[in-house]
Amino acid sequence: MLSPKMEQALNDQINAEFFSAYLYLSMSAYFVATNFDGFANWMRIQYEEETQHALKIYDYINDRRGTVVLQAIEKPQTEWDSPLEVFEASFKHEQFVTGRINALVALAREEKDPATESFLKWFVDEQVEEETSVDAVVQDMKRVQDFPAGMFLLDRELGQRQAEASAGGADAT
Ligand code: FEO
After folding, report:
1. 66 alpha carbon to ligand 1 midpoint, in Å?
2. Does residue 134's CB lie within 6 angstroms of at least one atom of ligand 1?
3. Which of 38, 99, 114, 152 could form a disulfide with 158 if both were Cys (CB 3.0 to 4.6 A apart)?
4. CB-count exposure of residue 61 (10 Å: 0-12, 13-18, 19+)
């Protein structure tokens, strides 16, 4: 059984993951509206992965015979000043999520819940990947943002990204 504190914190994380999904879908919509279809594709895959993260926690709570309680999802930002600002916001958001995952691990230890601590290890590793991949885009974009041809090529490159095939999003990047 999950402790009430652990159950609440995991439910809160489902909400945080769905908010992340919503934020990335909003970023994707911004890129569609500003004619960067490749960046839009990249963000849409982020959206799909965040949804999988939420469902992974949803399944875990159910597996432990806890109770899932879904909460309202906050409205995400819809406007940004530039593509770089969007990706920088994404990087900052992932750092925030990493902090949340670390706090969950600390709580699992406090609650003497090794199963949840073990479950969270996937998320700890995933956050390293997520921060690395979005930071790589930020660095590339900083180099080319003042050159239309460079932005065109970067948009094309990010348009090649494909969703991971795994059912539970277990190999998501
Ligand atoms: Fe679910 Fe991007 O962290």
Report:
1. 22
2. no
3. 38
4. buried
pLDDT per position as a tens digit, 122-156: 999 999 999 999 999 999 999 999 999 999 999 99
| Ligand 1 neighbour 53 (Cβ under 6 A) | yes
- What pLDDT shows up at residue 165? 65
3 class by beta-carbon count within 10 Å (0-12 exposed, 13-18 middle, 19+ buried): middle
Report the C-alpha gap between 140 and 142 in whole angstroms. 6
Select from 126, 124, 125, 129 the least CA-distant residue to 105.
Answer: 124
pTM above 0.90, yes or no: yes
What is 4-158's CATH topology? Ferritin (1.20.1260)
Distance separating alpha carbons of residues 123 and 131, to the nearest angstrom: 12
